[in-house]
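Form 12-C: Joint structure prediction
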Amino acid sequence: MIPAAFDYVRASSLAQAIDLLRDDPDGTKLLAGGHTLLPALKLRLASPELLVDISGIAELKGIEISETGIRIGALATHAELFASEPLYRELPVFRQAASLIADPQVRNRGTIGGSLANADPAADWPAVAVALQAEIEIVGPNGLRRVATRDFFIDIFSTVLEPDEILASVHIPRPRTGMHFIYRKIRHPASGFAVVGIAVGVRLQEGAVDEISIGVTGAANHAFAGQRASDFLIGKTLSQDNIEQAAQLLSETTECLSDRYASAEYRANLIRIETRRALFALAS
Amino acid sequence: MNDTTAIRLIGQPLKRQEDFKFLAGKGRYVDDVRLPGMLHMAVLRSPHAHAKIRNVDLSAAKVAPGVRLVLSGKALAGKIGPIVPNWVIPGSKVPFRPVVATDCVRFVGECVALVVAETLAEAYDAVGRIEVEYDVLPAVIDEEVAIREGAPQLHDNVPGNITTIYKVRGGDYQNAARAADHVIGLRVVNNRLIPTCMETRAIVASPEPDGTLTVYIGSQVPHMHRRWIAETVGIPEHQLRVVAPDIGGGFGAKMHLYPEDLLCPYLARELDAPVKWWESRSESHQSTSHGRAHTENIEVAFRNDGKILGLKVETLGNVGAYLSNMASGGPTVNTVNFGTGTYKIDDYEAISRVVVTNTVPVDAYRGYGRPEGAYIAERAIDAVARHLKLDQVDVRRKNFVQPAEFPYRPYGSTGVMYDSGNYQGLLDKALAAFDYEGRRSECQALRGSGIYRGIGVAAYTHMCGMAPSRRLAMSGFDRGGWESARVSIDSSGRATIYSGSMSQGQGHITSLSQIAADVLQIPIEDIDIVQGDTRQVQAGHGTFNSRSMAVGGSSVHVSSQRIVAKAKKIAAGMLEVDEKDVSYSAGAFSVPGTDIAPVTFPKVARMAYVGHKLPDGVAPGLDETVFYDPTGMGSPSGVHLAYVEVDPETGIVDILDYVAVDDVGTLINPRLAAGQIHGGVVQGIAQALYEEVSYDPDNGQLLTGSLLDYAVPRAEHVPNIRSLFQQTASPTNPIGVKGIGESGSIAAPPCMVHAVLDALSPFGIKHLDMPLTPPRVWAAVQQARMGAAQ
Amino acid sequence: MPEPDNRHVVTLEINGTRKTVAVEARKLLVHLIREDLGLTGTHVGCDTSQCGACTVEIDGLAIKSCTVLAVMADGASITTIEGLTDIGAELSPVQAAFHEHHALQCGFCTPGMVMSVRQLLRDQPNPSEHDIRHGLAGNICRCTGYHNIVRAIESLASKGDQP
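Section 2 - Result
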C-alpha cells in the first residue's frame, strides 16, 4: 500500500523531462495522471528511483481542432475528452468511449497519453485511436517523430517508445463528412477494463461502404486494426450477410488471449458479436 | 394492574441515530486510532502454497531504518499460541496452528516473519529485506482432489486431509429411493468467496501505565476476543481491555482469532509501546478468512407428481490450511442439518467431510453453512421440477411444511426444530408482488422472438441465534449462547444500556433503543447504547449468526422489564399505595380510578438514588443486568423471486426484477430490516453472478489477489430489491423477533441460478455452477448448441 | 521543493484552510489527509483504485486520493467529507438524503460515496436510475446493496440545490 521510496521532480518543460529521462532511463518513470503507475508502485510491482511529474507541462496539454486535424495533448484527461464540446461536435465517439472508461473519479485524473503509452492490452483509447487512424507524436532527444497508432503497440505493455521518449500528443485527421464512429465494450466486472472493445468507423456512399476503420482492444496482446474485415467490407453494402461475414472474419483471424476470466474462444465470440452490433448500429 | 404501552416504537421505521457521525466523517475505526509513540507492524507472508522453511535471514531487515524488532516464527514458538478453534465438532482432528509459521507454510499468505518499525512505510521496506529459503512442496487446492489417495498431506495428525466426518440421518433414504418413481443426482459447487468488509482488519495494542493492555480491534465479538487473546498470549483476562470502535462491516470475517490479533498484544508488551497493524486490501485477500468453498453431491428421490420422498447429500467442505475458529462446524452442523430446507422430506441422509487444503482458512461468512444448506434443498427441488417439467412454484407448494406442523422437526431431527413459519403465505405474497403468472406468459411469448427470460424461485428457512448454552456444549462450542444487557438509569431518569451485542453497521443504537423504549416507556432520546468496550460492557458474545435482536435484544427487553418492576415498587412507596395498584405508561406511574397525582419516571429514578423513601426490602439504585440465555432458536424464512434476461450471444445476465418476501418475526424497525435484506441479497447475487476466489490448481497461487480480479459488485451490477415482509412471531423470545442479517445471502444464490437456468431452458441446460459469469453462461450455451447439432 | 532527506514541502488548501506540510515523495495524498492533517473521515478501502472510499475533491473534481501523490497536490484546493459540515451544523443535501433514505450502514464507504455523489449531481442534475448506477461505478458499498443509495440520489434529482 505504500510505494518504495523514490524521489520526485516536477518538470516544467518537455526538454527538462527528456533530460531527466536520459540521465537514468531505467530508474526513471514519468508521472501524469498516475492511475497506472501509482497502483503498481503501491503493490511494489515497480520501484523506480525517480518520478518525473509531467502533469504541469503546458506543451502536453490542450485539445485543438484545426482545418487539417485534431490535436489532443497527452495530458488530456478522460473527463476532459468527455466534456469537450468542440470535440464532441467533431467526433462524438470521444464522449461515448470516455464514458465507458473506469469510473468518474479515475476519469478525472487518468490521461489519454498515459492510456496509450502504458499499452495495457485491455485499455480503451488504443482501440479508439486505431479506428480513428490517429498518429502519435513522440518527443525525444532527437526531436519529434510521428507513428501511426496501429504501428505504435508492440506487445503487452510495450510500445515503440524509447526509454528517453515522451508521448506528447495524438493527432487525428478530421473525419470526412458522413464518417461515423462507435465504440462498444464488454467490461470486466472487477477491473472495468475491456474484455473486448471494438471501435468502428464507417462512411457510406450510396449505400456502400466507402471508408471503414476498425480498432480492437482486450482481445490480443495489444490493440490492433481489423484490416481484413475492413478490406472485405469496402465497396459492399452493410447487409446482414456482409456484416456477419466481416465480423466472422475479424473474429477468426484474431489470436485471442485466454485468462482466468475469459477464454480465447469467448473473446473471439465477443469480437464477432460486438463487431456485428457496432456495424448494425452504424448501418442504421 | 396492566400496563399500557403509550410508547410503541417496535415496528416503527425510525431513521438511524448513529448516522450523523458517519455522514460527517466522524466515524472512528481502528485505523483512525493514533497513539503517541505508536509503532507499526508489517507481516512477511508466504509466497508458496506449501513449502518447508529452510532458513529465515532477518539480518538485513534488522538494520533497516526505523526498525525496532524483527522476528520469525521460531522466536515466537512456545511463547504465544497455538491458535485453537472455538468450535470443534466432536471427533475432529485439530491441526496444530502456530501464530507464525516455524517449519512449514501451508497457504499463500501465511505469516512467516514480522517487522515492527517506527512508520508503516519503514516496516514495509524492512519486510522486503527479509530473505527466506523454502523447499517447495506439492500443494493441493481442491477439496475433491485433497481426499484422493496420494494427494499431498498437510498435517501429520490429519490423515487423508479430513479433519471431521459428520453424519445426519432421519428415516430411511434407501427405502424412499426404492419407493420413488425417479432418483436423480446432481453435483453442485458452492463457490469460495472473500467476505470483503470495506474496512479491512486492523488492530492496535497499547500498554497502559497501570500494567493493563488496551486492544483496539474491529471485532464482532469483543468479549470473546478478550478471552482468546488472554488465553493465547498469556495475559490475565482482567488486565486486558478490548475496545471495538466503529466497524466497517464484519459479515462473519471479524469474529475469528487471527495471528495479528495475538502479535500486536504480544509485541506491545515486549516493546512497551503501542503497536498497530493495518491490513491492506490485497493482503486481506490472503490473510482474512474466506467463505463457502463446498462441493456437494446430491441425490433426490421423488414421485411422478413432484412429491419428494428422500434426499441424500455428501458434502465436502474446504476449510483451507487449518481449522479456523468455527471451521469444523460450518460444513457440518450448519450445512447438512438444514439440507431439507422448507420441505417435508422425512427420509434424509447426509454426510459431511471437512477437508484441509493449501488455501486461506475458510470460516464464517454471512449465513455460514445455511446458504450452502439452502442451496442443496433448493437446487434439488428445482431439478425435480425441471425433470418432471412441472412448474417450479407448484412443486414447492406440494412439498412445503404446512403451517399447522410448527414447531417442526425435519426428518425427525433431534437437533433441528423450526419454531414457526408460513411458507405458503410467503409464496403467495411473493407471487402476487411479482406478477408470476403474467411474467411466466411473458417469458413464453418472448422466447419466440429470441429473447431469453427466466424466473427464479427460492425458499429458505434456517435457525439462528444459537442457543441455549447447554446445546452449544453438545455441538462442541467453547462458549455459550447467551447475551448480556445492563440497563442503568441515572438519577435524572435517562437510560444507558450496556449491550454485549456489537454493531458493524446493523444500526443497534437505534434498534436496541426501540426495544428498550417500549418497555421503559421513556423517549428514545433519553436512551444511550454502549457497545464494544469490555471495560464498560459487563460481558457478552457479540454479533453474528443473526442473533443480535433475538438474543441481545431480548436481554435488553428483559433487563428493561426488571427496571420497570423495581421502579414500580419504588413508585408504590412514593404514592403510598400497594404495588399491584400502580399502572405504568409513558413515563408516569399512576393509580387508576383514584385522584392520586402520578409520579414520573425521572422522579422515581431520583428516589432510587437518594434512597430517602424506599419501601422495605428495596435496595437503592435503578440498574439491572441480565444474562439472557434463550430457550430455543428462531427460524426465519422467506421466498425470493428473480426475473432475468440472458443474452445467449454474450452470456450477460440482466436482472430485471427481484422480490424478497421474508418472515423474520416481529419487525423492530422495517427501514433497517429492509436494509439488511437489500445488502444480504446483493451479497447473494454477488455469489451467484460475480464473485469467486481462484487459485492456480498447480501451484496454489491466489489468482484473485486484489479487487482488480475479484469482482465485488458495483451499483450498476445489481437491481433494485423489492423487500416485503410477513410477520410470524417467534415463540422463542419475548419480542417475537427472528434473525434477519443472513436471509438475503441465503436466498439469493439459488434464486438467481434458477432464474438463469429457467431462461436457458430452451437450450436444454440443466445445470450451471456459480458464479454465472458471462463467459461461463456463453460456454454452456455453446456446448448445448453443439450438442443439439450433433 | 525537495528537502535534503527526500522530503518535499506541500502547500495546499484543505476545506478552506491553508496548510503547509513536508512529506516524503512517496506519501499518498490520502495519507497526508489522514495522518498529517488528522482528517480521518477519508478512508482507505483498497490498493488498486477500485473502492472509492478515499474519494475527495481536488479543485472541485472528485478523485481517488489513494492514487495521487501528496506532492502532486501542491497548490491544490481540497475538500474532504469534513469540509461539508461544521459540528452542530445541518447536514449538506447529499448527507441529509443519505440519512433520510437509510443509505448507509457501517459508514465506512459513506464519506467517499458522498463525495462521489456530489460530482454525479454536478455532472447530471437530473440523473436517471441508470445514470446513477453508472455514475457510482467508482465506489463499492458492501452493506446497503446500493438500493437505498440510489433512492437517496433520486430524491435529490433536480432539486436545484447545491449538492
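Section 3 - Comments
Chain B touches chain C through 56 residues (CB under 8 Å). Chain B has three domains: 19-26+482-628, 33-137+196-287, 367-463+634-789.
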